[in-house]
Each structure stands twice: as C-alpha cells, then as structure tokens.
C-alpha cells in the first residue's frame, strides 16, 4: 500500500466525516484507552499475586484465581477496544483504497450507507461486549470469593479466598460499563447526525 493510501487511512480514522464521530474518536482514543492503560494496570496489575485462599498455598491460590478470573479484565477490555475499532478501520481502509474524500462520504448515498453500517456494527459489538462483561464480572466485586475445590483436592470442598482491593475494582467495573454506554450513545447520535445531513436538516461539512 502506497504512502498516500496510508495517509488517507490514518486521516480517516483520526478525523471521521461527522462532528460526533470526531468527538467519539477523541473520547475513545484519549479517555477510554488512557483509563484502561494507566488505571487498569494500577488496579488489576498485581491482583494474582495478592489473591490468597484458605489454605494459603501457591497451587490452591493459582487454581482458585483461574476459577475466579477465566479471563483477566485488562485482556477482555483490550480485546473489546480492538474489536470495536475493526468496522471503522475497515471502512476507512476501503475509503483510502478507493480514494474517497471525507467530504464525499456524507454526500453520496452508497458511501454514507456503508459508513452508517460500520457505525451500527460498532454498536452491536459494544452491546455484545457489554453483555459478556456482565456474564464474566458482574457489577460488583465481593471481598470474599468461595472457590469450588472439588476438582482440585477432594478434602477441600470450598475454599474462602480474599479478593484484594475489591472496592476499587467495583468502581473500575462501573466506569467501564459507563464508557461502553457513552460509546453506544455517541454511535447512535452519529447515525442520527448522518441521517439529518442526508435529509438536509444540517449542512454538510
């Protein structure tokens, strides 16, 4: 791919054709990624090391932690961010290969419909991630986790495990839910903005 295509692709990703899309990019790229990258590591970085169970043995702690965290929240949210970016990246890659200017996206029906589809797909992916987060992490992190030890060692049926910094993790969970909701609202608002521009209620950029 030529440098011109790469430049068009990067400009399309960083400067979408709508005002709300540009705000979404700013929110997504700065606030959400910064929150996950910096604060997420601070809250969850040493969780496995401080996760202790009764009896406090390394193999017991490891077994129960794997049961408590089938996937670590940082990995889940990082995958969510990457997957959600795919539809928009695919559209802007297509636009770069076809040499489509940003101002033409909202003026031509096919391009605007394709772009709306990518935004709508982003909403679906965010909704699926929201549901998976509920299934995996819930809305609250309890201080005590009851670990089922039946598959590990029969003489220990249930092991009580201490979850470190459970209150901070609860706050972080709520924040990530809030970010997902904000992103979905911005995507819906962007679709509404495009519809208004197509109908002539708003001037095109």
TrEMBL record:
<dbReference type="GO" id="GO:0007267">
    <property type="term" value="P:cell-cell signaling"/>
</dbReference>
<dbReference type="Pfam" id="PF00029">
    <property type="entry name" value="Connexin"/>
</dbReference>
<comment type="similarity">
    <text>Belongs to the connexin family. Beta-type (group I) subfamily.</text>
</comment>
<dbReference type="InterPro" id="IPR038359">
    <property type="entry name" value="Connexin_N_sf"/>
</dbReference>
<keyword id="KW-1015">Disulfide bond</keyword>
<dbReference type="GO" id="GO:0005922">
    <property type="term" value="C:connexin complex"/>
</dbReference>
<keyword id="KW-0813">Transport</keyword>
<feature type="transmembrane region" description="Helical">
    <location>
        <begin position="75"/>
        <end position="97"/>
    </location>
</feature>
<feature type="transmembrane region" description="Helical">
    <location>
        <begin position="25"/>
        <end position="44"/>
    </location>
</feature>
<keyword id="KW-0472">Membrane</keyword>
<dbReference type="GO" id="GO:0005243">
    <property type="term" value="F:gap junction channel activity"/>
</dbReference>
<feature type="transmembrane region" description="Helical">
    <location>
        <begin position="171"/>
        <end position="192"/>
    </location>
</feature>
<feature type="domain" description="Connexin cysteine-rich">
    <location>
        <begin position="125"/>
        <end position="194"/>
    </location>
</feature>
<keyword id="KW-1003">Cell membrane</keyword>
<protein>
    <recommendedName>
        <fullName>Gap junction epsilon-1 protein</fullName>
    </recommendedName>
</protein>
<keyword id="KW-1133">Transmembrane helix</keyword>
<feature type="transmembrane region" description="Helical">
    <location>
        <begin position="109"/>
        <end position="132"/>
    </location>
</feature>
<dbReference type="InterPro" id="IPR019570">
    <property type="entry name" value="Connexin_CCC"/>
</dbReference>
<dbReference type="InterPro" id="IPR000500">
    <property type="entry name" value="Connexin"/>
</dbReference>
<keyword id="KW-0812">Transmembrane</keyword>
<dbReference type="InterPro" id="IPR013092">
    <property type="entry name" value="Connexin_N"/>
</dbReference>
<comment type="subunit">
    <text>A connexon is composed of a hexamer of connexins.</text>
</comment>
